[in-house]
Amino acid sequence: MPELPEVEIASRQLRSWLSGRRIVSARALRSRVIRGQAQARFAGLSGHGLLDVERFGKWMLLSFDDGEGLLSHLGMTGKWVRRGASEPAAAWVRASLELDDGSALDYRDMRLFGRLIRGKTEELRQAKALRALGPDPLPGIDVERLHAALVRTRRSMKEALMDQRTLAGLGNIQVAEALHRAHLDPRRPATTMTREETARLASAIGESLRATLRDEDSPEPITYVEEGGENVFLVYDRLGQPCSTCGTPIERIVQGGRSTFFCPTCQPRWRGRGAAGKKARRRAPARRLRVPRRGRSRRRPLAARKRR
User: Fold this and answer.
1) Residue 158, domain member (yes or no)
2) 184 shares a domain with 149
């Protein structure tokens, strides 16, 4: 599934394919991909040339001349593919950009979870979806900011890192890979993280992103693991296979409705031991026993009875 590395590669490809080219015609089928917009609005990209492609987490913003823009999110199965003038369109094409050199760029999306939003570039740049994103981890991670974000939530590490407000672009795959590299239990409460552990996690996230970019970067569109593509990951989708570090079979659990793959030896279950665990237990609010109104004792306190 497309996450930050795959979207980064897609943005590089679009920049290469569209550079110096002009759109002859733009066409979008009526589908959920352009929900909320008319097909004629997408067709308005005709005649424009690309200025830049920017990536914001899992989003791409294509900027054209005259202030025109297109915001693209690949969803779960979306991808941009290029075909020659004589080649027929493949299955599940939801939108197409025909270029002045005879080639065409098709947006394919089998499951229709992607988005194509046409509008003015500056308005799209201020879209609510982009403004809600946290920092992009690819250039580097501010450890202090990340640590402050983690210790404020009682969610598990997996769920906290999946939140796009924490770091933009991380998804199910990259979170599983980074936690494995950092030797952290995905079930561990994020609030228990120490500063040193957060620094180790930040380093692991960067390593995972760079490794995926290195293994997947190609002039051709990526074939996702779910489509039968090569699995370049350490733990993701490797249930039962030996861990590349220790040889222990990879296990799978479900968190927030999503599969989590991990090594039970490299990422042992966190049980609150040590200073971090004591701190978390002190932080937990005491449970108050609620006594039903009916049946409460009407006896006076012992001190009152003694005074009498």
Assistant:
1) yes
2) yes
pLDDT tens, position by position, 54-69: 999 999 999 999 999 9
- Residue 305 falls within a domain, yes or no? no
Point out the residues that are catalytic: 2-3, 58, 258
Provide the domain limits for residue 125: 4-131
What HEC string does 129-164 produce?
HHHCCCCCCCCCCCHHHHHHHHCCCCCEHHHHHHCC
Q: What is the pTM of this model?
A: 0.87
Rounded distance, CA 130 to CA 122, Å?
12
Q: 12: how many CB neighbours lie within 10 A of its CB?
A: 15
DSSP run (H or E) holding 307: helix 302-307
For residue 51, what is the enclosing H or E element?
strand 50-56
Contact 48, 42 (CB under 8 A): no
User: What does each C-alpha distance from 190 to 100, 176, 186, 208 come to in angstroms?
Assistant: 51, 15, 9, 20
Domain match, 170 and 126 both: no
The total of structural domains in the chain comes to 2
State the pLDDT at residue 291: 45
Place of tokens 């701190």: 279
Please state, as a whole number, how many other Cβ atoms lie within 10 Å of the Cβ of residue 149. Answer: 20
Of 61, 100, 98, the closest CA to residue 83 belongs to 98
Which phi and psi angles does 84 have, rounded to 5°? Answer: -75, 170
> Is the pLDDT assigned to residue 299 strictly greater than 80?
no
Based on the fold, state whether residues 199 and 235 are members of the same structural domain.
yes
